[in-house]
Amino acid sequence: MCSLEKRGSLFVLTLTGDDQHRLNPTLLDAISAALHRVRSEASGASTALITTAYGKFFSNGYDLAWGKSGGPAAATKDRLILMSSKFRSVIRELISLPMPTIAAVTGHASAGGFIFALCHDYILMRKDKGFLYMSELDISLPVPAWFITVLEAKIGSPAARRDVMLRAAKLTAEAAVDRGIIQSAHDSAEETVVAALTLGEKLVSKKWDGQVYGQIRMVMLADLLSTVSSDETGEDPVHVNVVVSRL
After folding, report:
1. Measured distance CA(103)–CA(50) in Å, rounded
2. Rounded to whole angstroms, how far apart are CA atoms 97 and 218?
């Protein structure tokens, strides 16, 4: 599901396999375990985390097929709540890491996969393939409030947020650079990862105190950390029924 390796001063978390890297409990648990390992092995040294993926997708969001495969509506609700809870836990872990974080987006990042990428400090993306896409409008699913808080924290332009959420725009890397959503666009998956490693090494060379870095990030994203504590689309019965009815 994912692998974690140390390359010099950098940690590289890779979503493995050639699937869509859907955010189901198995993958989310694996990512959470990797983030715990990163935290424990950082040991106060200056370091950074790079997250990337194999295949066509960085991540295609929640595993809705797994969510509705439990049978009765009640089981589907339980699965949706479980996925939301585990994903929000991963986001809290990521935001609280005592180091810079970089997403090297080498394929499509859709819905929750786009949110996962946005919760890194930097996003680099290949420009020959792939797009960033919030698909909820196109598939008639409500968006949790904490997703919007992520977008408000990470995308400065109201027009860009409108395009992402109210036009369901499929943004290429170059379009995302133009809107200030990502830092840079690169010619291939390999070049994207190399650029992420180069950026990571540059950040590590600053020799910042990781605990201070993480604390500043958490203060900057305090509203997000507060909002991510709940998800009305998975916990409010009215919202849950709407989601279940549309799967």
Report:
1. 6
2. 9
H-helix segments, the chain: 25-42, 64-67, 73-96, 112-118, 136-139, 145-154, 158-166, 173-178, 189-204, 210-220, 222-227, 232-235, 237-245
CA distance 81 to 64: 12
Q: Which pair of structure tokens corresponds to residue 15? A: 């979503």
- CB atoms near residue 45 (< 10 Å): 11
| Rounded CA separation 164/145 (Å) | 15
Q: How far apart are the first and last CA of the chain?
A: 25
Q: Please enumerate in sequence order all residues whose Cβ is within 8 A of that of 152, keeping only pairs 6 or more positions apart, or say none.
A: 161
Mean pLDDT in order along the chain per 10 residues (247 residues): 95 95 97 97 90 97 89 80 94 98 98 98 96 96 94 97 97 97 97 98 97 97 93 64 63
Tokens of 181: 């959503």
Reference 132, options 101, 167, 157; nearest CA is 167
- Rounded to whole angstroms, what are the CA distances from 229 to 22, 24, 65, 70, 144? 22, 19, 25, 25, 11
C-alpha separations of 144 from 21, 147, 232, 246 in Å = 21, 6, 6, 15
Angle ∠(134,236,91) on CA atoms, nearest 5: 50
Question: If we measure between CA atoms, which residue out of 52, 93, 60, 95 comes closest to residue 200?
Answer: 52
Distance of CA 180 to the CA centre of its chain: 17
